[in-house]
Amino acid sequence: MIAAGADLKIYVAMRPIDFRCGHDGLAAKVQEMLRLDPFSGAAFVFRSKRADRIKILVWDRTGLVLVHKRLEGCKFVWPTIADGVMRMSPAMFAA
User: Fold this and answer.
1) Is 58 in contact with 43 (CB distance < 8 Å)?
2) Which of 4, 47, 48, 52 has its CA 20 to 30 A from that of 15?
3) Closest Cα to residue 92, out of 81, 78, 82?
4) Mean pLDDT, 10 residues at a time, over the chain (95 residues)?
């Protein structure tokens, strides 16, 4: 379970990724694409090309947790695609 407390850092990858990636593939993308530490306890959010799926990767001090969400008949609202990473507050994430 990802506890979105006030101190949780949330990073959103701005470019869509290959959704065949699992725990290790996403951890590598965090290091290579975002230049961040996947074991920092922050939540890393990735989207699919169609914007109907997201994957969230977070280290919970015991292992990597991967959450996969697929919407039926609609899409996630997503910022304009650009290179880099966007930081979100837990309040923005929960909205």
Assistant:
1) yes
2) 4
3) 78
4) 69 89 95 94 92 93 94 81 65 57
SS3 for 17-84, per residue? CCCCCCHHHHHHHHHHCCCCCCCCCCEEEEECCCCCEEEEEEECCCCEEEEEEECCCCCCCCCCCCCC
Token look-up 């910022």 returns 79
Task: Check if the beta carbon of residue 69 is closer than 8 Å to that of residue 54.
Answer: yes
CA distance 88 to 9: 7
Global pTM reads: 0.80
Residue with tokens 């379970």: 1
Of 11, 16, 77, 66, nearest to 44 (Cα)?
Answer: 11
